[in-house]
Amino acid sequence: MTDLILRFAEPADSDVLFQLIKGLAEYEKLSHAVTGNVAALKEHLFGSPKYIEAILAEYQGQPVGFAIFLHNYSTFLTKPGIYLEDLFVLPEYRRRGIGKALLIKLAQIAVERNCGRLEWSVLDWNEPAQTFYRSMGATILDDWLICRVTAEALTNLADRS
Helix or strand or coil: residue 14? Predict the structure, then answer.
């Protein structure tokens, strides 16, 4: 697709990435959960330490999607991995191969960095995404559940002695 450019995000992309993140939240009916801001996103993408990385998808010169990822580690494989935090393409640009191109790019990065795996989560209600991911060769694990501690519960856990 000659009209599609995938590139690592740059500091000047922080505003547009945050707008796309809000688009993802709206799609997932989670707009109320967006409590972060552009400054924090920029710091985490480009500060020191750098916590995340982002690939921006531009179609015909317009930002239309992104993938935000970070490294994790497999003790069993004794190799780093890539965890895809979010992959999103604006609804009006779907079915053009943009999501597929983003996932392929992440797989290429994982191979280049000698990672043992590429992982991500998908919402249980998001059948279109599940179908897409399976078509790309992904296995959806039924026997693993995500554990999460946030907000006050995180502070309470940290304060335990």
Answer: helix
